[in-house]
Amino acid sequence: MSVKTIGDVNQNKTGSYTLIFNAVDAVGNKSTETRSVKVVDTMGPVIRLKHKAFLTHEAGVSYKDSGASAVDVVDGDLSGVVEVLSTVDISKVGSYSVTYSVSDANGNAAIEVARVVNVVDTTPPVITLLGGATIQNEALAEFIDPGVNVVDLVDGNLDPTITGTIDVNTVGTYVLKYNAKDSSGNSAVEVQRTVTVGDTGIPVISINGDVLVVQEAKGTYVDRGAKASDALDGNLTGAMKSVSTVNTDVVGDYSVTYSVSDSNGNTAVKVVRTVKVVDTTVPEITLRGSSTVTHEAKDPYVDGGVKASDTLDGDLTKSVTSVEHGEHGCGG
Ligand SMILES: [Ca+2]
Ligand SMILES: [Ca+2]
Ligand SMILES: [Ca+2]
How far is the CA of 198 from the centre of ligand 3 (A)? Predict the structure, then answer.
């Protein structure tokens, strides 16, 4: 007896196969039997992640997933048809997933594989100074801080914390410090600004009385002085200096010059008073002897003379001139 099998089963390919068995005995009796073989694929593909299953990713940086491969026992490489579902949001700190799924040609779904992507923010905000790093502020003038810009990749614009104050009433150097922290607790690099409060305003002198004074020679000249004040220092009259050239012994024009500097070395514009020393006082003549003299006729008359003096010129006796005034003889 012999048995023949007709047909083949390809276990690598799903489908229905039929095997026919024919048997013949020694006397030629034939017998036939058939078997149906159904090759099926009930195994889903297997997904493998490329790269790590847990990732830490910096917020604000674009995310590109490294993908996954898929292999099916029957279909072979299915990497090209793997479906990806990503919830990754780089703009927000959080835990996200990238899920991979695929089915084989027979509708067997792979076990889903997910990658966990933790979006973190380890980047501090960046502080940018607006305006100069050093600012010159005039004393008493209001200081307006130009401020800073604080930008964080995740939080966007942030408000800085500012330490330091400026006292515009006090000349000096001040430092403002700007700091900022993002919502993940990352501290920005501190930024500083130096503010110098300076006094460039000069004091002002105002004269008491007239700028032109007429002074009688030989009199005692008393200057009425001046006042000085500075916006920052206030009253500087006490610190004022005056230089006087006045000489009441000599007729002429003289000056009294006032000057002052403030505590920061700013010098006022000098103020000058002119003092005109004049002589308006007439000389004084003093008779030697009586103002009336009785003199015997025929005797030679010798006048007793006079003394003359002037407040300014002093003794003028030698300069006296006498003028004889007519005859007032009584006759006889
Ligand atoms: Ca399969
Ligand atoms: Ca940040
Ligand atoms: Ca000043």
Answer: 9
* Confidence (pTM): 0.65
**Cα(119) to centroid of ligand 2, in Å?**
11
Measured distance CA(224)–CA(207) in Å, rounded: 8
**Angle (nearest 5°) at CA 117 between 111 and 120:** 165
Q: What is the 181 CA–ligand 2 centroid distance (Å)?
A: 8
3 state DSSP class of 298 = coil
**Structure confidence by residue, pLDDT tens digits, 159-179:** 999 999 999 999 999 999 999
Residue owning tokens 């500097």: 261
CATH number of 204-278: 2.60.40.10
Measured in Å, residue 178 CA sits from the centre of ligand 2 at 16
Ligand nearest to the CA of 107: 1
Question: What is the third-level CATH fold of 126-198?
Answer: Immunoglobulin-like (2.60.40)
Q: What is the pLDDT of residues 111-157, one digit of tens each?
A: 999 999 999 999 999 999 999 999 999 999 999 999 999 999 999 99
Q: Are the C-beta atoms of 209 and 226 separated by less than 8 Å?
A: no
> What dotted CATH number matches 46-120?
2.60.40.10
Q: Which residues contact 218 (CB under 8 A, 6 or more apart)?
A: 248, 249, 279, 281, 311, 312
DSSP states of 30-60? EEEEEEEEEE---PPPEEEESS-SEEEEETT
